[in-house]
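Subject: mismatched residue count in predicted assembly?

I count 348 residues in my input, but I want to confirm that the predicted structure covers every chain. Input:
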Amino acid sequence: MAPWDYPDFDEHEGVHFFRDTASGLSAIIAIHSTHLGSAAGGCRYWTYARSDDAITDALRLSRGMSYKNAMAGLPMGGGKAVILADPTGAKTHALLAAFGRSVESLGGRYVTAEDVGISDADMVEVAKQTSHVSGLPVAGGAAGGDPGPFTAHGIYLGVRAAVRHALRRDDMNGVHVAIQGVGSVGGGLARLLARDGAKLTLADVNVDRAKALAAELGGEAVPADSILSVEADVISPCALGAILTAESIAALRAPVVAGGANNQLATPEDGGRIHARGITYAPDYVINAGGIINVGLEYLGHGDRAEVEKRIAEIPGRLDTIWQESASTGEPAAIVADRMAQKLIGRG
Ligand code: NAD
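Triage response: the counts match. Full output below for your records.
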């Protein structure tokens, strides 16, 4: 099937397929839009059951990056890479080098960075082949480096904004937050919330990881398949996408959903379902922009860490604008945010 026959095809400017037999690389780079600049978005290393799933992921994630970068005020378009991990193979230097050459072949139309399964050390390998890389280790007060902590910080500020909006509370002391996935983003968020005295319920398919963090921070660990229906003040999805479905939304027992995972809504209709339940939803690509703000400014050579923090601090205000418009028009927050983003990328 051609990329444009997929339901998630959205007038993407290009979908590029790369294979390097020697290293075992199979990768897809989807460029959704370069209207605002080079298409920026991380590289995901993941085992997909079918190649179709990888193409769908690249299409959805790259569109999300166009929206995310536009809403974050970055002069960058949206793209995403996925490397189809072979469960019997390894993420070797040769494979990362082949990926770097693939990025280089696009001549700067796509700029890569870390995503799930890719570390800053991996990006160092990629950078040996191409300059169109961000998320590289930096020293001192420079912008850049692992985007995870910056994403977590933006989500923390967004969760606090959602709690102010929905619960009329200014502090997080005793506010119950249930986090799905405690990796780089969810784990960082948990630590920031623990500092404020929030009550934490944590879950991860890596059960030991959730248990260890719960023990360290004084929270509770629950099985991964029960986290979305925990009775809490905030559900924070910080694992993978498409977890907000008709079924899971019906089972939610929290007034707020605000988390870092990309593409949380399984279908556009799910934004309407969550709204119809009166739940405050933080559109994922708005609340989780902290990491791309950090690596975007690194790539562009604009500003330092203080500038990154200043721009991340604008995330709550952006969410408030979306919720206010949603309240005045009666439309789901997801629809309001999409319309704002589409206008910014010249598709409104
Ligand atoms: P990560 O790999 O560090 O952590 C993800 C965690 O989720 C892992 O601990 C994994 O075991 C767990 N997990 C996977 N499936 C799960 C499930 N079904 N239930 C519970 N736990 C599950 O990845 P990350 O960097 O923390 O990213 C998390 C999410 O945030 C992803 O959707 C990613 O695309 C998104 N995101 C990340 C960044 C960033 O800067 N890292 C930026 C924007 C968005």
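The mean pLDDT is 96. Marking this ticket as 'not a bug'.
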